[in-house]
Amino acid sequence: MELAFEGRSRAEELLLGNGGELGLLGSSKAYQQVWARDSMICSLGLLLCANTEGKAIHRRSLETLRRFQSPLGKMPHNVGFANVADPALIAHGGTLGGTGRSEKVAMVDTAHAGCVDNNLWYIVGHYFNYVATGDKELLATAWESLEKALLWLRYQDSNECGLLEVHEAMDWADLFVNRYNVLYDNALYYAAWKCMGHLADALSMSSQFYFANALDVRRKVNTLLWVGPEEPKDFTGISHERKEWTYTLKRIETELVERPFYLPYVAFRDYADRFDTLGNLLAILFGVADRAKAHKILDYIHGIGLNEPYPVQSLYPVLQPGDKDWREYYRVRNLNQPHHYHNGGIWPFIGGIYVAALVQVGRADEAEQQLEKLSKMNRLGRQIEWEFNEWHHGLSGRPMGYAGQSWSTAMYIFAHDAVEHGRVSIINSENGWHVAD
Fold first, then answer.
1. Which pLDDT tens digit goes with each residue over 288-340?
2. SS3 category, 103
């Protein structure tokens, strides 16, 4: 574990160094904005830092996002200062855009304006903050904003089935084909409803509505996206509740019979048969999956080698030109070629969630082994050691993204803490989160 302790120290230093005036930047080298999803995910690491500046940085992120929330409740994709040179913004000409003024002007990036997980992570990030700090004053100030964020999400349930309907490329995989009832977004939707319930309790408000909706989302995710004997289908009940689901579910049951993972999406008379790593891991971490499903998912990751050469590849099998879900825009900037980026690249931040998921279900020895491999990956760099790169090639394991990524460092801290203490921080049974038997 000596390497892991060195990694923890370097990760905290780099993560805190990515703090800025507006909050946590995606990186101080590229993505120099406060990204809603990234900053909220990173709070799981920031709130564990020994230096109290970590909590201060997260609070600034929350306040910046709230300040730029739209009148309808949508959270910004990211907020940054104009005219800041940024190599990740090549599509913008290298900056968020000029204002013609010399003073600092914060502005919202609209490159991916409809991403639904911004709102989801904003709610969850407030919950993380409250559990870690107990700051009821901030929570009370933000409550109206949180209710607006949740209402905006509810309007993304266009057919009022109880689950989110998500457009293609409108979440963290913002150059990828997942769509309609997407696993990743709806696992987070369950978490967001549950977080709202806990936060309502903290403010001595009625919480039953939020907890009831959380259970409803959890049930429907399992009904729609799990295929196998662990989730037998009552087609009579399904037909009474949501007739349109019967057509697709009967097709899935006939064609697939069973799978050791949640499907990445189910759409209108359509579905995808591949393994979305992040979605499945979040289903474990937040308790959408029960223990039997969780172990099948983790066994599958190990069996097909998604944790090789490092933890963990984001997709299996990768999409190839000619596949039904291949898109020609995958070729743009060489990003989503097979084994690249969202199409099967290795993401250190997902690796951190993988380690935490192993801890969550009691697979401590595996978690320690995978943390050691995650340490070795984060130590790799194009130019220096401990680069904490954005993503690595799915087969070679070599770094291919931008260095100094906040979520690579933050989720390493989160994973290290989980292994060190034998339990996951914040998202644990003491706070009402567990994997049911």
1. 999 999 999 999 999 999 999 999 999 999 999 999 999 999 999 899 999 99
2. coil
Structure token pair of residue 420: 């060190």
pLDDT band at 184, cuts 50/70/90? very high
Are residues 274 and 183 in contact, defined by beta-carbon separation less than 8 angstroms?
no
Measure the CA–CA gap between 280 and 295, rounded to whole angstroms: 11
Tell me, letter by letter, the H, E, C secondary structure of 87-102: HHHHHHCCCCCCCCCC
pTM for the complete prediction? Answer: 0.97
HSE-CB of 4 using CA atoms within 13 angstroms:
21
78 has which bridge partners?
A: 35, 109
Dist. CA 45–CA 413, nearest whole Å: 5
Q: Look at strands 78-81 and 106-109 and give their pairing.
A: antiparallel
As given in the structure block, the two tokens for residue 56 are 């201060």
Tokens of 119: 């709102």
Q: What residues does 316 pair with on adjacent strands?
A: 275
- Residue 102's pLDDT is what? 56
101 CB-near residues (< 8 Å, 6+ apart): none
With CA atoms as reference, report the closest residue to 74 among 143, 141, 156, 130: 156
Residue 400's pLDDT is: 96
Among 219, 211, 182, residue whose Cα is nearest residue 195: 211
Report whether 225 contacts 263 (CB < 8 A). yes
CATH number given to 2-76+115-431: 1.50.10.10
CA distance 210 to 130: 17
The residue among 285, 339, 273, 281 whose CA lies nearest residue 308 is 339
Read off the pLDDT of residues 348-364 as tens digits, 9 standing for 90 and up.
Answer: 999 999 999 999 999 99
> Bridge-partner residues for 343, per DSSP?
340
Share of the chain above pLDDT 90, in %: 91
How far from the centroid of its chain's Cα atoms is residue 351's Cα? 12
Q: What is the pLDDT of residue 53?
A: 97
Q: Phi and psi (nearest 5°) for 33?
A: -135, 165
